[in-house]
């Protein structure tokens, strides 16, 4: 089975590339796709570049061109839920687009006609993550992740996203990847390690903790591959 593993930034996939057997690198649509194997799995690995457009493009290519049958995202996020601290892991039960707004026409935030506010992740993959967390005695929070094309470093904006979407964490790619996978009927999973608290220190914390938190997320994702059936 072909499994797609993606991140948004190079720091998010480098720890994964270091653990797999690289076979070929293919350049397509201004991005690099790494074909690799890990134990029995055939993998396609890429980082999309930051944001919803780039991540939707990369996810679409992984599914359509590289025929991925599952997609796993690994990366970092800003914490909204106060239980989450730097380095902690969260998996998304569902994701939404916090910056999608046609409320001028009476629609709820995050909604456009013929779509939905939240896209749900694979319960099978989430259960595998919970099993791995139990085995390794790692604290893993399950929650709602809000995605938007904004780096949030503002407590008021963070509070608005929490109140409006009941979100636990915030990032810039998960929902767009999720809506692509949902449209193609492909199971997907979003794992994030906290790099900052989306408040006024967020930029500083992000720079300081990006690499270590990205590594935490990648290490966990690699462990999950042992529990995904061929
Ligand atoms: N990814 C990591 N931290 C973030 C933040 N504060 N806002 C948006 N995306 C993020």
Whole-number radius of gyration?
Answer: 16 Å
Arrangement of strands in the largest sheet: 5-9-8-6-10
Q: Poorly predicted ranges (pLDDT <50, ≥5 residues)?
A: none
Bound molecules: adenine
Distance between the termini: 6 Å
CATH fold call: Rossmann fold
Listing every helix as H and every strand as E from the N terminus to the C terminus, the arrangement reads EHEEEHEEEHEHEHEH
Number of helices: 6
CATH architecture: 3-Layer(aba) Sandwich
Describe this structure in words.
The protein has helices at residues 10-17, 52-64, 123-136, 155-165, 174-184, 202-225; strands at residues 2-7, 21-28, 31-38, 41-47, 70-79, 89-97, 118-120, 140-147, 169-171, 187-196. With 230 residues, the protein is α/β, with parallel strands linked by helices. It has a single domain (2-227), classed as Nucleoside phosphorylase domain (Rossmann fold, 3-Layer(aba) Sandwich), CATH 3.40.50. A 5-stranded mixed β-barrel has the order 5-9-8-6-10, surrounded by 6 helices. Helix 1 (10-17) packs parallel to helix 6 and helix 3 crosses helix 6 (202-225). The longest helix is centred in the last third of the chain and has 24 residues, at 202-225. Bound molecules: adenine (ADE). Adenine (ADE) binds next to strand 5, strand 9, strand 10 and helix 6.
Question: Mind sketching the topology for me?
Answer:
Blueprint: E1 2-7, H1 10-17, E2 21-28, E3 31-38, E4 41-47, H2 52-64, E5 70-79, E6 89-97, E7 118-120, H3 123-136, E8 140-147, H4 155-165, E9 169-171, H5 174-184, E10 187-196, H6 202-225
Parallel strand pairs: 1-4, 1-5, 5-10, 6-8, 8-9
Antiparallel strand pairs: 2-3, 3-4, 5-9, 6-7, 6-10
Helix pairs in contact: 1-6, 2-5, 3-6
Bound molecules: adenine.
């Amino acid at each position: 089975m072909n499994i797609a593993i993606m991140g948004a930034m190079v720091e998010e996939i480098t720890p994964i590339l270091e653990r797999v057997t690289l076979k070929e690198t293919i350049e397509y649509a201004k991005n690099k796709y790494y074909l690799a194997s890990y134990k029995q799995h055939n993998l396609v690995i890429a980082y999309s570049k930051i944001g919803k457009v780039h991540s939707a493009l990369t996810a679409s290519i992984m599914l359509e061109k590289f025929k991925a049958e599952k997609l796993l995202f690994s990366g970092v996020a800003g914490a909204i839920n106060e239980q989450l601290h730097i380095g902690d892991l969260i998996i998304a039960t569902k994701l939404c687009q916090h910056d999608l707004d046609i409320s001028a026409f009476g629609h709820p935030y995050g909604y456009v006609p013929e779509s939905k506010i939240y896209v749900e992740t694979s319960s099978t993959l989430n259960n595998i993550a919970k099993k791995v967390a139990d085995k390794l005695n790692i604290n893993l929070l399950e929650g709602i992740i809000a995605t938007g094309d904004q780096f949030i470093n503002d407590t008021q904006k963070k509070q608005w996203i929490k109140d409006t979407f009941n979100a636990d964490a915030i990032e810039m790619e998960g929902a767009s990847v999720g809506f692509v996978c949902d449209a193609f009927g492909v199971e997907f999973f979003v794992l994030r390690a906290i790099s900052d608290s989306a408040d006024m220190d967020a930029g500083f914390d992000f720079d300081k903790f990006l690499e270590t938190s990205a590594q935490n997320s990648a290490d966990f994702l690699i462990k999950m591959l042992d529990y995904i059936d061929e």
